Amino acid sequence: MIKIKNLVHEYIRRDEDDNVVDIKKALDDVNIEVKKGEFVAILGHNGSGKSTLAKHINALLYPEEGQVIVDGLDASKEENLWKVRQRAGMVFQNPDNQIIGTMVEEDVGFGPENMGVPPEKIWERVEKSLKAVGMYQYRKKSPNKLSGGQKQRVAIAGVVAMHPKCIILDEATAMLDPGGRKEVLRAVRGLNQVEEVTILHITHYMEEVVHADKVFVMDKGKVAMAGTPREIFSRVEELQTLGLNVPQVTLLAHELRKAGLPVSKGILTGEELTRELLTIKAGR
Amino acid sequence: MLRDITLGQYYQTDSLLHRLDPRVKIVGTFAYIISLFLFRNITIYLIAGLWLFAMIRLSKVPFRFMVKGLKPVIMILLVTVICNVLFTKGTPVFSFWKITITDEGLKMALFMTIRFVMLIIGSTLMTLTTTPNQLTDALESLLSPLNKLHVPVHEISMMMAIALRFIPILMEETDKIMKAQLARGADFESGNMFKRVKAMLPLLVPLFVSAFRRANDLAMAMEARCYRGGEGRTKMKPLIYKNTDRRAYLCILVYLVVLIVGGFIGKRLPL
Q: Cβ of A98 and B133 within 8 Å?
């Protein structure tokens, strides 16, 4: 679905005379492959290059070196630009700054309008995608009257209405409260499971990664770690050196292990830990 | 504060006026505004008033929403009324010290007030029954002949739509910045006008910065959703005239005819 090969992106700062002052490699030789229907999470603290990566997949940025292939299309080719943007929909961080319409349904229809979809078909798409994120009853409302989580769901519906093969959430949950974050994640997981849309979830919240199929951890423009959530979370110390906090349950399990209890590695949920602890207790 | 301006505040309900094609409403509102200025006698105000009353009833919007639209212009109205009363020359009715109030002045002030109030209520009614997006769509369609003169009609209407969408957001932001500054001891209320304007400066700078950031984000979000100008773009809600719209045009025409006839008859009448 998405194939990124040796991608490099540099931010170049110049002084008044156009001399290069500083080159910062936001992405440095990144290789990532995402298969169709997968739920992939990309972790990383601020400035690790994860947002730059997202913009490359949507062809909002142009690769200096390397290649980005989305659904078999080379994203660096001019003629593929709009096709790539349609196939890889993007949801941004600030819900207010990405809603264009003054009414929920108008905003969801914006993408299909741009693609030149005939009106009756747009209405079908709008209805379907609003239902998919559970916002259909709000279709006539003004986006200003919605909560953060609801706005983000509208933004997701706006992307879904373009019938993308893949949705990139670029820190889409960062500005939401815990309730809103759950709402958005539930909607996204639903899309992933029911419609089999590939999801690329970029975040710095560890708890949101637990249900992903695959996790990439970014640091200083490089992919520092890759694997399933369980594999990643069993490397607690490594994560901590990268400035990332592991979920509390995982941390607790890790500490217990260090203290000598035979708890297995990479515990992700509270239930898992309880089960482990109960078996240990029964064994004694 | 600024929140009280009803202009651009859509009142959601289902009525004949709400369902009408926005182009009809724009044309109708313009015809109505012009009609108010065609004559100056009591008959046309009666006719226009009746028309307006009928429209308000048709719109199913509570009357108090229209009155709200009047609030911000009350000062202007008062000033014009006072000027008219004091400075119009004619047959004196009442004299006191250096001030003479004339028959003509009173009449003028009265007509002015009626005209002004009816004008504001009429245009407020249009914005109450039409979403800003419909309005800009209608303007785009009505102004599309200008496209041939290389006027970027689509872009202008898109900008208007976006501006309308961001007014409440920026208003909220202003409020937030204001509170933040007040909390740190800023003073927006005391002092003369000059001082108060100066006190607004630290408010405007962060507001501008944030507005630019928002514009940047929005442009990116629009591009990500395949926006590339008006070409090859379809409309979710294309404007197509229905029979009701044609009948509405006919109604507007009848109204204008009745008003003009009424105006000529009114000229013969005293007052």
A: no
The model's pTM is 0.77
Question: CA-CA distances (angstroms) from residue B90 to B107, B267, B270?
Answer: 11, 19, 17
Question: Higher confidence at residue A204 or residue B250?
Answer: B250
The pLDDT assigned to A160 comes to 92
Interface membership of A148 toward B (CB under 8 Å) = no
Token pair listed for B55: 């429209």
Query: Which residues of chain B lie closer than 8 angstroms to A58, CB-CB?
Result: 224
**Phi and psi (nearest 5°) for A222?**
-120, 155
3-state helix vs strand vs coil in chain B, percent to 5: 75, 5, 25
Q: Kindly report the CATH number that applies to the domain delimited by A36-62+81-228.
A: 3.40.50.300
Q: Where are the domains of chain A?
A: 36-62+81-228
Determine, for residues A126 and B236 on separate chains, whether the beta-carbon distance falls below 8 Å: yes
Tell me what the mean pLDDT of segment A135-155 comes to.
Answer: 89
Please say whether the beta carbons of B118 and B49 come within 8 A: yes
Mutate to test the interface with A, among B13, B162, B226, B235 (most CBs of A within 10 A): B226
Nearest Cβ partner for B224 among A90, A140, A144: A90
Cβ–Cβ below 8 Å for A94 and B162: no
Distance CA(A173)–CA(A146), nearest Å, equals: 15
Interface predicted TM-score (ipTM) of this complex, two decimals: 0.84
Q: Where are the domains of chain B?
A: 2-130+242-268, 145-224
Q: Is A138 on the interface with B (CB under 8 A)?
A: no
How far is Cα B137 from Cα A32, in angstroms, rounded to an integer? 43
**Is A158 within 8 Å of B162 when comparing Cβ atoms?**
no
pLDDT per residue over A82-111, tens digit each? 888 889 999 999 988 998 887 899 899 999
Question: What CA–CA distance (Å, rounded) separates B188 from B92?
Answer: 46
Q: Kindly tell me the sign of the dihedral angle through the C-alpha atoms of A96, A97, A102, A107.
A: negative
